[in-house]
Design goal:
By secondary structure, the protein is α/β, with parallel strands linked by helices. Helices cover about 45% and strands about 15% of the residues.
């Protein structure tokens, strides 16, 4: 059995499988199929997809919506889990937490917007804490940029990290998450049911993040901000953050709507499908 996630290296592997009578299954994390899976899809035994199967161009009888496998650390955030996460991160019940993550390499436009708007936000909300994942290449610059614009008291309420393997803990403790529209991160936050402001990257080939964000916006499952608009006017992000932090019910509604996209057992389901197809004659 061959399982293709859509990377270009899968093309020769899938052709080799076809020539040797080996079955293969494709999987698409985004609502727009990868070019690789489009090329090899005609001979696939099944197509597993992240979103509703009717939006994909594959034969519907061979398409199954499974979601995206994510770490078991991501679970639905209950009041108890949220309190546990906050205790581990030393965040009190009365404090508000905004968690900002631009992906593993960071996001320049989001980072620069935060340098601009955080002084006012931290001034407006005296009980606000912010955790900002900036990416390894941006860590030194980001810390220096914040040191220039924040006073000593404000700087103590900001945590800048290059990277973390505890995303689930920060997002689980957060009142609000600001994120790119990467499929895996969105799948993780959907399982948790946390409110998100989504800023899709416009530079990725295929427009996958734009489509991911569009689907969430249509279902009122996230606040979506255009990346170009953010670059021109960072305060559009400040306004959305401020409005949401003042409206706990709206935050709860956003988190609830996002859970409609959650697939809690995607990894298990995909594994079972692979085994079933592999064993079938």
């Amino acid at each position: 059995m061959v399982f293709s996630r859509g990377g270009y290296v899968s093309v020769p592997v899938a052709f080799g499988a076809k020539l040797n009578g080996v079955k293969y299954i494709t999987h698409d994390s985004d609502p727009i199929p990868s070019l690789t899976n489009k090329i090899i899809g005609r001979w696939a035994s099944l197509h597993l997809v992240a979103q509703s199967k009717d939006i994909y161009p594959y034969p519907q009888a061979k398409t199954i919506s499974t979601g995206i496998p994510v770490s078991r650390s991501f679970v639905a955030v209950t009041k108890k889990i949220r309190e546990e996460c906050r205790q581990k991160l030393n965040i009190s019940k009365t404090e508000k937490l905004v968690f900002v993550i631009g992906g593993g390499l960071g996001a320049k436009s989001i980072n620069e917007a935060l340098y601009d708007i955080l002084p006012n936000l931290l001034g407006e909300f005296k009980n606000l804490k912010v955790v900002h994942i900036v990416g390894h290449k941006n860590e030194s610059h980001s810390k220096a940029a914040y040191d220039e614009v924040l006073n000593e008291e404000q700087r103590k309420r900001l945590k800048v990290l290059a990277f973390t393997d505890k995303v689930y803990m920060y997002s689980g403790a957060a009142d609000l998450v600001v994120t790119r529209a990467g499929a895996t991160n969105l799948a993780e936050f959907a399982i948790q049911g946390v409110a998100c402001i989504v800023i899709p990257s416009t530079f990725l080939v295929g427009g996958h993040q734009l489509k991911n964000a569009q689907i969430l916006k249509e279902k009122h499952a996230a606040i979506v901000i255009d990346d170009k608009e953010l670059a021109e006017n960072p305060h559009v992000l400040a306004k959305e953050i401020s409005t949401l932090l003042k409206n706990p019910r709206r935050l709860a509604d956003l988190g609830k709507e996002l859970t409609a996209f959650a697939h809690n057992n995607a990894g298990q389901e995909i594994a079972e499908i692979i085994i079933k197809v592999a064993e079938a004659k």
